[in-house]
Amino acid sequence: MSLEQLAATASAMVAPGKGILAADESNATIRSRFDAIGVENTPANRRDYRSFMFRTDPAMADHISGVILFDETIRQHDVDGTPLVQYIKDRGSIPGIKVDQGPREMANFPGERVTDGLDGLRDRLRDYYAHGARFAKWRAVIDIDGKLVPTPGAVKANAHMLARYAALCQEEGIVPIVEPEVLMDGANDIDRCFEVTEFVLKKTFQELFEMRVQLEGMVLKPNMVIAGKKSPVQASVAEVAEKTLTCLKITVPSLVPGIAFLSGGQSDVQATAHLDAMNRLGGNPWKLTFSYGRALQAAAQKAWGGKTEQVAAAQAAFAKRASMNGLASQGAWTEALEAA
Ligand code: 13P
């Protein structure tokens, strides 16, 4: 696969006004989302839920450049036999696939995790390509706990696996989304998040360099630099935007075409406001957009509640978040538009 083709896919993933829908919840994760709305976690309910999201018109075509899928979904067909992947392609959006197998406790590093999934990855990538995937995702999770966690050893292991994954993806013609997520669940302040994110991104790009990953053919999916949820001191939108951009400018080479943030547990509107503020500051070498899971889907799940008669309302809720974030990806979102 040529670098030109990888670069063209990566650019399309971060096209102006568009971002990525992370609908790759594992069956265990979607269970907790469904539990919250009283929906039974069956293959049919997962199919129906994803089917209506992917058929949301015109929001999917207008604002969703790509969709990250879970293994079950990329193979799943709708009631009438249409592959769910077809709905995505029909709207000019690109199917993607989560290929990591989740974080596990790391030997010798109590309280830290490393992501599984490199074994057999080349063959799985070939199968996913045949099913239509043109990009993939691998998520590493980095916890913050006081000054001692994360350790350099755990960060290095996660960065190395991200780079090995990315190299294999590019070999198979698949654009890697490289996702080193520093979690925002802790009690740390924003400056500790900055320090850890800077360290993690530096290690990640060092490993990407050593594993000969071509930066033009990847997308970075980082956390924003933000205070932990349990911190008594929460930063303003302006501070999050300014510190996140500074951190990224220190660490992310300008050849990377785009940065698509995860939402990480921010509220829907917070995730939109932060992205918008960063794009308003402007002057960045890379596109800045969204690759949200919860911040794109939470409102739609609530509106749906598993009821067929609520599908139109749920699609409207999804369309609203997609369009607000599409505006934010261009620095054109306002509170007035949000309230409208
Ligand atoms: P959230 O936006 O809910 O953090 O999910 C994005 C994602 O893909 C995490 O891996």
Account of the protein in words:
There is one protein chain. This protein has 340 residues and is α/β, with parallel strands linked by helices. 48% of the residues lie in helices and 16% in strands. The chain is built from 14 helices and ten strands. The mean pLDDT is 98. The structure holds 1,3-dihydroxyacetonephosphate.
Unique ligands: 1,3-dihydroxyacetonephosphate
Oligomer: single chain
* CATH fold type: TIM Barrel
The CATH homology group name: Aldolase class I
Report the β-strand fraction as a percent range.
Answer: 15-25%
Q: Which percent bin holds the helix content?
A: 40-55%
Element string (H = helix, E = strand): HEHHHEHHEEEHEHEHEHEHEHHH
In short:
This protein is of the alpha/beta class and 340 residues long.
Topology:
Elements: H1 3-13, E1 19-23, H2 27-37, H3 43-54, H4 59-63, E2 64-69, H5 71-74, H6 84-90, E3 94-98, E4 103-106, E5 109-115, H7 121-130, E6 135-142, H8 152-171, E7 175-182, H9 190-210, E8 219-220, H10 237-251, E9 258-261, H11 268-281, E10 287-292, H12 294-304, H13 311-328, H14 335-339
Parallel strand pairs: 1-2, 1-10, 2-3, 3-6, 6-7, 7-8, 8-9, 9-10
Antiparallel strand pairs: 4-5
The protein binds 1,3-dihydroxyacetonephosphate (13P).
Please supply descriptive tags for the structure shown above.
TIM Barrel; alpha/beta; eight-stranded parallel β-barrel; two-stranded antiparallel ribbon; 10 strands; single chain; 340 residues; binds 1,3-dihydroxyacetonephosphate; 48% helix
